[in-house]
């Protein structure tokens, strides 16, 4: 409940705007968590907390968990509730690129298990929440300490071909990614389980209304305040958003509600401007050390490429408009393994995006078919080199012909 004696009326709008931007990734994450770990009637349900659901086959338009899914690295999804005890993530020896990134409630990464970060050897990796202060058992390969009590994993494993044999081989690797509570791994007694909360039912409408703060209030109960955001958390507490899950918009004084609604509008406008000027994934995804308090950039990443990887793992770019400022039509997919591509004389590659195939044979070989309508073209570079990471290389313009 709002404490009028503590609230400075002049700060309500700014606080609501800042908190809406700060909280947007948290709610974007909860949208997926709800469908995958809580709503067993949803086709995207993975089976609850503590289990993997693997996708060894190429994605289709029916797969909506990720904004722009990748068929080069099929997914392995899982969610962990770390309130009772840590979990152990076990992996086999893997002879190809893979990554099992552990993201926190606001989509910042707590750590990574994978060929780039922990190697290609088999190992057992501990994932612990903010309330655990124990010692890792013997034999643990690495420890990932999360700042939130709920975390997710969107694993990627390189696909090598799409033949039935290749799909079976990929599925065999994925099936050996295992999750176990710490007490099962160590063979010790099971601790007293944490109380199950009443999970709020996800509705898209909450993103645009003051009810946004009801969901944020509930989810902050799984997210101990970080020292860097003590000021914002304090101002939110004065407004009744304190992590107890009891915030009720209907009890707000009309003047306070009106200022919070204006703040939401301000936050939405600021996010829209930031999205419009964003041309790559650099600075949008990463660990707490890298992201810091860049909450606007973090929100851009959540709404344009939820669960995107940091640039060390993958670089993402997109053309929101062509070189003349027009939005291009929707793109399909090609990669460096596509047979028959025709290189430019200098070794470069020119792709032709159009609804109908080009008549020129060389252009047709590099044709990327697209629907006859608006789209965003997305470029991914896995394991990018230094020229990409430091900005010396940038995507060429998408030029209409």
Share of residues in strands = 15-25%
Q: Indicate the mean pLDDT.
A: 88
What shape does the CA trace take?
A: globular
Largest sheet: 5 strands, antiparallel
- Kindly state the number of beta strands: 13
H/E topology pattern: HEEEEEEEEHEHHHHHHEEHEEH
User: Number of helical runs?
Assistant: 10
- The low-confidence runs, each spanning 5 or more residues with pLDDT under 50, are 321-325, 327-335
Q: Spatial order of the strands in the main sheet?
A: 1-2-8-4-5
Q: Structural class of the helix and strand makeup?
A: alpha+beta
Q: What is the annotated CATH architecture of the domain at 40-186?
A: Sandwich
Radius of gyration: 23 Å
CATH level-four homologous superfamily name of the domain at 40-186: Domain of unknown function DUF1254
- CATH domain fold name of the domain at 40-186: Immunoglobulin-like
Instruction: For the record, give the distance between the C-alpha atoms at the N and C termini, rounded to a whole number.
Output: 59 Å
**Helical content band:** 25-40%
CATH hierarchy class name of the domain at 40-186: Mainly Beta
